[in-house]
Amino acid sequence: MECKTLSNGVKMPMLGYGVFQIDDETTERCVADAIASGYRLIDTAQAYGNERGVGAAVKASGVAREDLFIVSKVWVSNYGEGATYDSIKRSLELLGVEQIDLMLLHQAYGDYHAAWRDMERAYDDGLVRAIGVSNFDPTRLLDICTFACIAPMVNQVETHVFWQQGYAHENMENLGVAHMSWGPFAEGANGFFSNPLLAQIGEAHGKSVGQVALRYLLDLGVIVIPKSTHKERMEENFDVFDFELTDDERAKIAELDCGRSMCFDHTDVQLIGGLLQMIKGQMQS
After folding, report:
1. Is 207 exposed, middle or buried (0-12, 13-18, 19+ CB in 10 A)?
2. Which residue ranges make up each domain of the chain?
3. To bridge 75 with a disulfide, which of 29, 47, 243, 282 should be the other Cys (CB 3.0-4.6 Å)?
4. Which pTM does this prediction carry?
């Protein structure tokens, strides 16, 4: 397994398994299948409502805890000094572990600076091995890196062949922050799985469209967490370490970049307005 060494020296697998939009019960079965298929990084979040399922599968897997890398995220309604720290402890309980390998702030909204101070406290107290953020654009990432005592080690953002995040990636590298992708298959948007270029390149290597796309992102130094509820597809997504793309193939894939979101546009005021009203309601309930 290829690994990324984070700024604090922690080694993180470059390829993992994501459980977004999978219910708790199904998550337990899927994570068990993923671990059996070779995955050692599992990505979940408080907002997904399936941390318990992840923890149950980890416990039943028979794989040593130190050989697994668990990622979770603090939801915005849990931001605030004291509240964020307490939510991390709840995540530990649901996951059934003594330490989370990487904890992220899920969104760059609300009082994320106060939440970050709790993240730093959790890191200092050994509740987490590494801390980072998710969905922070380059300016928000620069903001938190500038004022934090401990800079984020990872930023997880929408990244795929149709939005390769070149500018954001360069910013992350300049700040010493590892780039992690969510939605590496663009959630199927823009005809992803039938893209003729990716299919042609895949045919040349005996690989699928998804495998080509994952290999491309890995070559860019991006951590990826493809999701599937089918074990055969999990195994296929994991089988990307036995081939190399040519320079010409990488150059052609680079041209697929549309430079915009295909999944969840954080610059869409109406979309984000709805999200923030939902979060506000959660905080008031």
Report:
1. buried
2. 3-284
3. 47
4. 0.97
**Does the pLDDT of residue 50 top 90, yes or no?**
yes
Q: Does the domain at residues 3-284 carry the CATH identifier 3.90.1720.10?
A: no
| Residue range 230-261, pLDDT digits in tens | 999 999 999 999 999 999 999 999 999 999 99
216 among known catalytic residues: no
What pLDDT digit, counting tens, does each position of 180-237 carry? 999 999 999 999 999 999 999 999 999 999 999 999 999 999 999 999 999 999 999 9
Selected catalytic residue, list 39, 48, 112, 123? 48
